[in-house]
Specification:
about 140 residues, mainly alpha, rod-shaped
Length: about 140
């Protein structure tokens, strides 16, 4: 809107200066608010990214802990299964020994008798004097 020419008391240059001052004052007044808003937005973005990084690290740690616990549980399960298998094998062997104790005793007795006879025969063979070919030929007369 252009100033009217009817009002001669008012200087148009003064009005322009006043308007320019008002605009500068307004821009100065709103500038800190807009800068503050920009800074707040930057800080909010930084905070959000820091929170996302923290959440990501927490998720990784939680995942690692969960994986470790699952591995330990699996190792424990395998240990229990192996121990129970060994206990079953031992119990089966003990029951077999008890059920067949007469046959086992007879087998052990036979084995000891064979061992004694073989050691006796080996000892007698080792105790004999060796004979040469002529003595063997003559039957020990020479």
């Amino acid at each position: 809107m252009s100033p009217s020419n009817n009002d001669t008391n008012q200087d148009s240059a003064t009005a322009k200066k006043t308007a320019a001052k008002a605009r500068r004052a307004t821009s100065r007044a709103t500038e800190p608010a807009s800068k503050a808003a920009d800074k707040a937005a930057d800080k909010a973005g930084d905070t959000a990214s820091a929170f996302a990084g923290t959440a990501e690290r927490a998720a990784k740690v939680t995942s690692a802990v969960t994986k470790s616990a699952a591995q330990r549980a699996e190792a424990g399960r395998k240990t229990v299964v192996a121990a129970s298998g060994q206990a079953v094998a031992l119990a089966t062997t003990a029951w077999t020994v008890l059920a067949n104790r007469k046959a086992l005793a007879a087998g052990v007795g036979t084995g000891l008798a064979v061992l004694g006879a073989s050691t006796y025969a080996a000892g007698r063979r080792a105790g004999r004097r060796t004979l040469g070919p002529i003595t063997r030929l003559t039957g020990g007369r020479i």
